[in-house]
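Weekly structure sync, notes
Attendees: PL (lead), two postdocs, one rotation student
Agenda item 3: pending single-chain targets
PL asked that the sequence for the first pending target be pasted directly into the notes so everyone works from the same version. It is reproduced below exactly as submitted, 311 residues in total.
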Amino acid sequence: MAAMVEIRDLRKVYAGGFEALKGASLDIEEGEILALLGPNGAGKTTLISTICGITLPTSGQITVGGHDVVHDYRHARNLIGLVPQEINLEPFEKVINTVRFSRGLFGKPRNDALIEDVLRKLSLWDKRDARIMELSGGMKRRVLIAKALSHEPRVLFLDEPTAGVDVELRRDMWETVAELKRDGVTIILTTHYIEEAEAIADRIGVINKGEILLVEAKDNLMTRMGQKELRVELTAPLTALPEALARFDVTLSDEGCTLIYSYDTSADRSGIAQVMSALNGAGLAVRDMQTKQNSLEDIFVGLVSDKEGAA
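Predicted structure, written out during the meeting:
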């Protein structure tokens, strides 16, 4: 089965010679949530803008639902909803008229029941007659999502949708995204909030300096690349690592009060038993122990750092 979005060898070079995308290739399956992570200037927004037809590619091909975004742009664009980073709304217009107008731009017939359903799902129905200028920043972002959903797209791009939104509203939006996924909508999310990707994404993509470094199922990525730490708090500080622990991946921290042992979660054996045996053999008294799993943020930082180090 063909992917909902197919990107092949996509390049974008701007007039000044800056290469924002460097041969990016990616398949996005129907009904999945893909989180695209990358530092500022990595090429996330350029990639989305090119798929949505806002920016023309220098070379390469993109299809959405089988429609080429350059040669068959009308059909491709009808399948896409975009929630941009910037809040650019008519301040004096009412919420409901703003959303209705967006539907009309795509040539869709008036459908008050659908617009009501969209506004209710986004907790905007009570604000339908409010002017945009009367809304909070979080509510304005919800209006952007409502506009993007007004023409019933099958692919939804969310470019930093929760930037500047408080935690409660952010979690409400996550629930809305999960509901859209259940309806079969394909969702591509760019975010600086890595916990957002961990919470709702099916797959994680990492982009840096115009290149897609990795695209993998979130759970597989955490298993494959995740590391764990065993932190052992000692009753008395050490000035140096005992010889019995030298053969393990152990370091001293907290001015010698804590031993940190790193191990691979995918390995057959963790090595913890041997480390604890070596601790006992060295006559070290333990006050407390805890383990810590590497987060997606740790993995992301490692990938980007490796790429920049190789550049």
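Discussion points:
- The chain has a mean pLDDT of 88.
- The chain has two domains: 5-222, 227-293.
Action: rotation student to compare against the earlier draft before next sync.
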